Each structure stands twice: as C-alpha cells, then as structure tokens.
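Form 12-C: Joint structure prediction
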Amino acid sequence: MENAAVRVRNLRKTYGSRAAVDDVSFDIIRGETFALLGPNGAGKSTTVEILEGYRRRTSGEVTVLGDDPGHAGLAWKARLGIVLQTTGQAGAFTVREQLRQFAGYYPRPRDVEEVIAAVGLEEKANTRISKLSGGQQRRVDVALGIIGNPELLFLDEPTTGFDPQARREFWSLIRRLQGEGTTILLTTHYLDEAAQLADRVAVIDRGLLQAIGPIATFGGEDARMPRVTWREGGTLHTESTPAPWAFARSLAERLGGEPDELEIRRPTLEDIYLGMVDPDAAATPDEAVTPASSPTSSTSETLS
Amino acid sequence: MTALTLAPARLSPMHAVRHGIRRIGFEIRGYTRSPETIFFTFLFPILMLALFSTVFGGDGDQSYGQGLPALSAAQMYLPGMLAAGVLLSGLQNLAIDIALERHDGTLKRLGGTPLSPVSYFIGKLGQVLVTGTVQAAVLLVFAGLVLGVPLPSDVESWLTFAWVFVLGLATSAFLGIAISAIPRSARSASAVVIPVALVLQFISGVYMFFWLLPEWLQNVANLFPLAWMAKGMRAVFLPPEYATLEQSGAWDLGGVAIALLIWLVVGLIISRLTFRWIRRDA
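Section 2 - Result
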C-alpha cells in the first residue's frame, strides 16, 4: 500500500512461551495520527520498539516508511523522530547545546531556536538539562524527537508528568506538526489525549489487538450509545438508548416533573476503552496478578 | 521523493567522519563538566606525583642500586604516573563514561538517530586523545618546572615517548570500550571499574617500584598492558643504567610494542563484538 507510512501484518513477539505481541495487524496512513492504547504490559511499547528498530520481531511482516526496521540503515533513521517512553538525558549539556548537537545528525533539521520555542523552553535554553524539572526534561525529549524534521514521529507516552497547562501546550505543538503533514504514532495512558489528537485508535491488551477504528466511530454503535442517568427512589438508574431526549421526556412525564440528577452523556473514549480492556489488567498494572485459575492452565493460555 | 534521494548521499562514510570530528568538542565539553572524571581521571596522577615526591623526596636524591646514579623521588615516579594517566584517560574514562551512557539511556537515544557508531567512537577516541595529551603535558610541565625533574633533550627519547604514549592510549581506550559492557547499572560503573584500574596500577609499577615486587607478581602484571606502558615510560625518563633493574636487564622496547599491539587487537575485537546501542532484546 503506497499510502501507508507503517504496515504491520501478523506481528508476533514472544519471550519464551509468553507472547508479548500476538498476531497484531494494522496500517498507519501517511499524514494521520494513530493512537495505540492499552494497559501497562499490554504490548504497546514492544510493538512500538519493533517499529522503531529497537527490537526484533519473532514473526510477521513490518514495513516502516518502505523499509523493514530490522534491517534499515541510517538514511531510514534520518526520516524518523523517536520520543521514547523512558530516556535518560545527558545532563551535563544545556538545552541549546544538546539540540544543536542532535540537529547536526540529520540531513534536513529544523531550526534549533524554533524548536526550543515550540516546546516552550526559551527561558531554559542555556540551562543544563540536569537542572530542569521532570516535565521540562520531557519537553527536551520531545524537542529532540522533532529536531530532525521527521516524516514519522513516534511518541511513547509523551506527556507523562506534564501539568494540565503543559499538556495543552503540547497538544497545540502536535497539531502544528499534523498540519505540516507529519505522520504520528502516539501511545498514551490519557484517553482524552488520544481523543484530542488521534484520527484513529487501536486498543491492544494482553498482546492482542482488541479494536481499531476512527475516533468518531470507535467501539461501535452499542458502545457509543448515549446514556441517561437519573435518581429515582434513592437509587441511580442508567439507560442506554439511541434516543436519549425522547427517553428523558417520557421519563419526566412518568415522574411528573424534572427527574433528580438527570444526566445525558455520550460515552467518552475512556468509557469505551474501559469497557474493552480486561478489567483486571486495567485495575492493576501488575500483569502478574491474574484471577485464580486452575493449576493446569499455562501462561500462554491465560494470556490468549 | 526528495528525502529519499538526498539522505543517502549525505550519510556517506565521509559524513560519519565529519560528524565524529564534530562530536569531539562535544565530548570534551562533557568530560570537563564531570567533577568525578576531572578528579579521578585527569588530576589523579598529577596529585599522586605531587604527593609521592613530597612524601618520599624528603631525603633528597637517592641511588636505587649499586652503581646507579642518584635520582629524585619525582623522577622515579614520573614514568609510572605518565603510564597511569594513559590507563585512566583511556580505559577508566571510557569504561565508566560509556557504561553511564548505556544505562542512562543516552546510547538508546543515539541509536534512534542517524548518527553512525563510527562517529560516536571518533568522538570518544578524540576526547581521549585530547584529554590524555593535555594530562601528559601537565604532568611533564609540573615535573619539569615545579619538581625539577630533568627531562630528555634528545629527539629519539621523545619519539619513543610518542609511540608508547599513542599506542598505550589507543590500547587503553579500546579496552575501556570493551570493559564498558560489564557494569550492570549506572551506579555500579565507577565501583566496578576504578578498583580494577587501581589494582592494576599497584602491581604494574605505578605506585610501587616494579623491581621491588616479587617475581611471580611481576609475571602476573606482565600479562596486562599497564606494566608494559610503565616500562616504556621508564625507558624514556630514567637514565640508561636503570635498565639493569628490569627483569631482563634491558628496556625491551620491542616487547613493549608487541604486548601493547596484542592488547590493542584484543580490545578492538571485543569492542567490535560487544558494542550495541542497546541490548536488542533486553
């Protein structure tokens, strides 16, 4: 597919008998922002690191910007921008020194001062990175990810540790990159972030792709059905209905007045997501915690 | 598309070399901003020379054997400290530096950029060459001007110094790259590397005169490169009569060259086999 920046077919990655990623397939179209969601340990980062060339896959087909990441060279890397989930920083250098150094690695870098301004670190340009706060260091990570003017940008939980203000500034930066045609693969824990930025979403859980689709129709009609809640006789009632206003009106007629605590809500991406992922995995990030199972069940069975 | 036709041309081997040379300045800046490196790598041999010549130099010049000319403690210790500087600037410096960069994520980050590993190593080796040379120059100036050590005035001695120094530094640097794979965390990097370097210095004639060590320990030390660097430096800075104190009764510069070359090749091979931006499936 000429139009795909990323093409993944039947991707599988196993560690011993454990499948971290199991038969995952998806495409990312050029210019689109694609969000990969899932609980900790679900296989998000493993998938992303295979696409970035950091990990080898066990089987399946992967093409990123026309090349196999397992064998691609430096010219291929020059077209990527990578913001890793956890990275260290060469703390001895200032923000400007570090960005100048990295800009030099790329054939067509962005302007260093523009990038410093874009991540809001003008005041800190001459400060050593070790002296910055965690959120500011994360902005340096993002700046280093975009300094090479990438065609494809990987953002692995980019805004962890940001305050709400910084997160909004980051979103507007990403929207500018989208406007310039950058293809973006985003993984995040913040469902509102995915809803704000992504064109399409995929949910991965226990190594399996659970759902994939455009933000606007994600999860299907049933999951997206509006909910009417109200209080009646001391208990909270919920009704999912495709016609919430008609339902609320008939409810008001039946109750002979305004229903208590009436609320009409369309499920957010977060609601849809939480209905989709394994409840135990979502509640406890520690994937070792599994419900009591028969002693004969093997690890691979509980995972699949 | 243009990016495809542009990029490969600009990422040629010469490109890697140019980037490596650009990285040297960056690496030197990082070196000068690490107080630990400045003290334990750069200043250490200089401070030790000052200390030893003060502690052991109180009685004035001494002869260290029958028929041997009397020498100051500073002159006796200078060759060992120069060799120690070569070991610290190459092996200790790079082993700790690269181990830290591996564990703090710097290498993983660089691995995601179009920087060639060749450029990275040119930067590191350039940093070692520059800082090691400045360190040796400071040691020599300090010994000559402050401690009054007579330095050789003939070209041949300085040529010997030059090849022992450069070969020793290259060997140390590649062994440092090889050893950098050993520490399992950023925290343990110094703790793993510094004691190894220290023991090597004690048995190789840096802090204790080599001829005072028992023969078996000299033989053990001769398995490692530092003893040969120290021997090469003694050949340059001690009077020829002192060759009689060596195991073979001669300076044996041929042996120095062979031992260092063997270790250089060992270091190169291990570095080539073990260095990765990241452990791919860690």
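Section 3 - Comments
The two ends of chain B are 36 Å apart (CA to CA). Chain B touches chain A through 31 residues (CB under 8 Å).
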